[in-house]
Amino acid sequence: MLKDFLKGLWRENPVFVQVLGMCPTLAVTTKAVFGASMGMATTFVVVSSSIVISLIRRFIPEQVRIPMFTVIIATFVTAADYFLKANFYQISKALGPYVPLIVVNCLILGRAEAFASKNGVFRSFLDALGMGLGFTCALVVLGAIREVLGAGTVFGYRVMWDGFSNWIVMILPAGAFLTLGLLVGVFNMVDKKISVEKK
Amino acid sequence: MIKKILNNNTLRMITALTVVGIFSGAVLVLVHNYTVPKIEANKTKETETAIKEIFPSAAKIAETVYPGVFKITGHGGTPGGYAFIAAGNGYQGEIKMIVGVDAEMTTMLGMQVLESQETPGLGAEIVGSAFRDQFKGLSLAQPITYIKNQKPEKPGQIEAITGATISSKAVVNTLNKRIEQIRKKVKDK
Amino acid sequence: MERLTINISPHVVSPVDTRYMMKGVLKALIPAVAVSLFFFRWYAVGVIFTSVAGCVIAEYVGQKIRGKQVRVNDLSAVVTGLLLAMVLPPAIPLWMAFLGAIFAVLMGKEIFGGLGCNIFNPALLARAFLMAAFPVALTTWTMPVTLDAMTTATPLGLAKFGPYAASYMSLFLGNVGGSLGETSALALLLGLGYLLYCKIIDYRIPLAYIGTVVVLSTIFYFISPDRFMPPQFYLLAGGLLLGAVFMATDPVTSPITPKGRWIFGIGCGLVTMIIRWWGGLPEGVMYSILFMNAFTPLINRMARPRRFGMVRGKV
User: Fold this and answer.
1) Which of A124, B28, B29, C86 is spaced 20 to 30 Å from A173 by Cα?
2) Contact at 8 Å (CB) between C73 and C1?
3) pLDDT digit string, tens, across residues A178-191
4) How far is residue B178's CA from residue B99's CA, in Å, rounded to a whole number?
5) Is the pTM of this model over 0.90?
6) Cross-chain residue pair B9–A61, CB shorter than 8 Å
7) Which of B149, B150, B168, B169 to mutate against chain C (most C CBs within 10 Å)?
8) Can you give the pLDDT at residue C7?
9) Cβ neighbours of B19 (radius 10 Å)
């Protein structure tokens, strides 16, 4: 049970291991707070759609399962988009089209297909929560690194000294690819060390 | 009867999809009803905040017959003017601004950027006050012009942002075009 | 490079190794370095020293981390550092030059597996990184000799945004604003002569590159002399000669077959002129070479020479 939850955080981390959902990962992580909001919105969608799909999994005909998953996911994505627009207008404006685009994040359809449609509600919930949090953590780390170097702040708090010149490249698309590549490299290095020590 | 439907594959598919569709539609109607008034309020508030930045003593902001054009009335006898939205293509994507002019349309009172996707550190400086403040009290007797790397010398001239000529030019062109449009509309009335 | 060289046959053992080639490039850079020291004085000293030191340190650390034998001795890091300094503006803050040098070696070379495995020219990659990170510092130029604090635009920049009367003597000698090593055509031509004489580089890439630029600009000047500058301007101004002689000829990141080298050079020239005429930037040499670097593996496959004894058309 616990394993279902934990695997999304490390062993099968959606960003660093499965390399899923690259579009939001690269596009919105110019600031840590954007990464966090995108991560939470995605977590909400993946958790609620997994629960619903797991609940009705016995009534889903095999041939139309993908359209049904898509309708369910799209419903939650639209709800999340409207919610952000109503309550966090500035963040929603900054995230722009990437909130509605959560619907095409392979992570969510992947969980529905690979886990929620085959397992019970509680396990599907844990699995989706783990995946969502793993995704959120990755986006926050990515956003924090880019924000520190690109703007000298983390979550809007100034952390760099006064004379620090912002590395503008970090908040450009190129900075997203650089940071993600290096993070995946570091992740694999640490993971290798852990598995060597275990043996 | 129900057993028959469940056994018929085609009917099962149609039923399942219909049920899911109806449910998701219902959920979305609820979400829509709850959020849309709030979203509208957010948008109005954003425009009004921007207008108040330009007209600190505005008493009444009223949208004219033209959408996106607002007539500003000042407190007591203080002068008002017009505020309107101006949008045009920047270096990357659209630049959307709100512009304030006096009632005679001879002087610009200020400019606020609502939306832009210019390059951070360069073109994005159009949002900064150093650039925007140049438009306060700018003469509109002639079209706005820009100059590079030196202080403005003529009336109606602003200094372009170093390294971001294209963004500065986009702002100036958008303003000129829109001001001309508004002038015609106001005259017609 | 020392252990495995990919090239077309015949394969012969020769005393030419990495160190020998790098030494040759360093010697060929002497005139350009001397000119930059003369025109930009202590700015040039600072940038060159910082950049070379940064590259050597990064190479040492990088090879230690990867657990490889340290080969700082082959001078390739020194060459990368010097080339990077040559493409930086004189008044760049020294810490930026240092950061660029580290990026050049670690991100441009070591991360791909060291010298010989990199896809892009490390010095240009670092400049592109600095350009994206600090656009204002990378486009702030200094007057030569006087080192005036007043910043000036490069000739290409001036010509792009308004009428510009070029002094071709200044452009030839290097008495204009620009990156440290790019201003003097004379010094770069001396370097080109030396490299060709010692057979360290092949004449095809520089010839194809410069030739394309000259032909294109002649045609366009002929069509509309008011809108375009004359060909000698596009030849002498900006980083064309530096790029064509020292950057596009990098043996690791350019094609190895004769036909491939022609294609590579022509491609560089084409992209350079497209950027110079219609792009948002005044200069396109850096991006054109990086762009063509990406095509090098493809060109190598496409322009494979015919095997001996094979009939054309039958593979």
Assistant:
1) C86
2) no
3) 999 999 999 998 98
4) 10
5) no
6) yes
7) B149
8) 64
9) 13
